[in-house]
Amino acid sequence: MNFLQNYIDQDTKSEFNTALLWDFGEKEFDLQENKKIIIQRVVEYGSLSDWSFIIKQYGEAEIIRNIKEMSGLSKLNVNFVFKVFNLKPHELKCYTKPQWRKQHWT
Questions:
Q1: 106 found inside a domain
Q2: DSSP at 86
Q3: What is residue 65's predicted lDDT score, i.e. its pLDDT?
Q4: DSSP state of 4
Q5: What global pTM score does this model have?
Q6: Three-state SS at 85
Q7: To the nearest whole percent, how much of the chain has pLDDT over 70?
């Protein structure tokens, strides 16, 4: 997690981009109650600032636990989490149990 850790160390005002929760109203989500969807949206669409926020908010172990249970991550996102968290393919549910139907444009 070298480059990401360097960014987090320098990031003094990590803020979560609420636009990632486009299907929730601004006052409808709770950071603890909805951490699974928040982590998934950051993995799929988040910026470095969003990554910094969730690592500070939930911790690396909780993020890894959630990533391992995600299904349907793109190849790009899978490769990113492999590199950042030193995960192996057999550790990810989306890698060991791929979706039955192929996604468009992959």
A1: no
A2: T
A3: 96
A4: H
A5: 0.79
A6: helix
A7: 75
Q: What is the dihedral of CA 11, 34, 85, 89, to 10 degrees?
A: -150
Instruction: Give the C-alpha separation, 64 to 23, whole Å.
Output: 24
Cα–Cα nearest to 1, from 52, 50, 42, 49:
52
More confident residue, 16 or 1: 16
The verdict on residue 46 lying in a domain is yes
Per-residue pLDDT, 15: 77
| C-beta atoms surrounding 90 within 10 Å | 7
Most confident listed range (7-21, 23-37, 53-67, 84-98): 53-67
pLDDT at 42 over 80: yes
Task: Evaluate whether residue 37 is within a structural domain.
Answer: yes
Give the gyration radius of the chain's Cα atoms: 14
When divided into structural domains, the chain yields a total of 1
- Residue range(s) defining the domain that contains residue 46: 2-96
Number of other CB atoms surrounding residue 50 within 10 Å: 21
Phi, psi (rounded to 5 degrees) for 38: -65, -45
Query: Considering the domain boundaries, does residue 102 fall inside one?
Result: no
